[in-house]
Prior knowledge:
The protein is built from eight helices and six strands.
Amino acid sequence: MHPGAAGVLRDGLTAASRHTQVIVTSHSPDLLDDKSISDENILAVSNRNGETIIGPVDTAGRTSIRDNLFTAGELLRLSQLSPDLELVAKTRKASWNCSASATVDMVRLAAIVEGQGECEAVPILVRRIAQTLDVALAVSVHPVLRVPGSRLAKQGEIERTVELAARKNAGQGAILVLLDCDDGCPATTASRAA
Length: 194
């Protein structure tokens, strides 16, 4: 869909929803780039180990949308429009009448990186380092936030992204910011980000 057409389509869908139920599925973040779209009107979809999971937007996403930190479209572009896995699990346990399973204490980590390669490499690298330090240490690496360095260099963007990472961690755990600075000097990039 052309980005310019998204607003027109969104307006048409909104008008139609006043008279009938409207269900829309789309990969277009442009369709969600509207601050008037409530997180309550969105179900997020993810694929985990071959299983499709559909549920309300996770807590970090909900609060980011409600606080106008990000639009739903911006979260989708960052691959951070995710279902609330805890709520989905609770719903499943209640509907299946399963007993609660044992919990494992984990170190939580949210990561911010520039490139696609880092998205895949950082969780593996962090887990290997943790295993080297302590065989019993378990690390939960949240979906990695991939933000191009050119965007992070803009005024206020690193702060917004760190805030989203903190919300993903629910205020617990650490945040790793990994900038490879392919396009510049690390010292210059760090001073601009500070």
